[in-house]
Design goal:
187 residues; eight-stranded mixed β-sheet; 24% helix; binds iron/sulfur cluster
Length: 187
């Protein structure tokens, strides 16, 4: 199994990519090509730079105040196997995992039967923020989503706590919040 991950960039400290202070990796490669995407430099799978999982863990550990790690992109599920390994190691150290995907959960569950690593990354994800960016439904007001079609989906008890920590501003339409994982095993 590959122990390197091709990334467009990393952000060692972010409060904009999920609840709390988070270490963020932006995966290189994205098949979705959403109109209005803010990260078009991530589209090609050949760009970016390779990091070993151990190097990423070293960088993550530098800040003991980090709540966990966010897997963003690009499309993290294109490199689901090695990102699941990274997420498993962060879980072992007590951190939580937020994963963005341009796929919807239903598509990922369908793909999991055919592509390696997808089920492993879903299993290691606490909070999934799913769906493509839809320019016509863009929102600048909702925390952690770019457009209102995207959903916040808890896939574990840690995901439940992450969901509870996301406070939507008063007076804006809610985005869909789903508790999928608790009591439902993704295997
Ligand atoms: S899924 Fe994200 S990175 Fe990929 S094209 Fe859409 S907005 Fe851009």
């Amino acid at each position: 199994m590959a122990d390197t991950i091709r990334l467009a960039s990393i952000l060692e400290e972010s409060i904009a990519d999920g609840p709390g202070l988070r270490f963020v990796v932006f995966a290189q490669g994205c098949p979705h090509r959403c109109r209005g995407c803010h990260n078009p430099q991530t589209f090609l799978s050949v760009g970016g730079r390779e990091f070993t999982i151990s190097r990423l863990l070293e960088l993550y550990r530098k800040n003991p105040l980090s709540r966990g790690i966010t897997l963003s992109g690009g499309e993290p599920f294109l490199q689901a196997g090695p990102l699941a390994q990274l997420a498993r190691a962060v879980h072992a150290e007590g951190g939580d995992i937020v994963t963005y995907s341009g796929y919807r959960l239903e598509q990922l569950l369908d793909m999991a039967d055919r592509a390696d690593g997808i089920r492993a990354l879903l299993t290691e994800t606490d909070l999934l923020i799913d769906g493509p960016f839809v320019l016509a439904r863009r929102s600048l007001e909702h925390p952690f989503v770019g457009s209102l079609n995207q959903r916040l989906i808890a896939l574990s008890e840690k995901g439940d706590r992450l969901l509870e920590d996301i406070v939507m501003p008063l007076g804006v339409p809610p985005v869909e919040r789903i508790r999928f994982g608790v009591g439902q095993k993704i295997v």
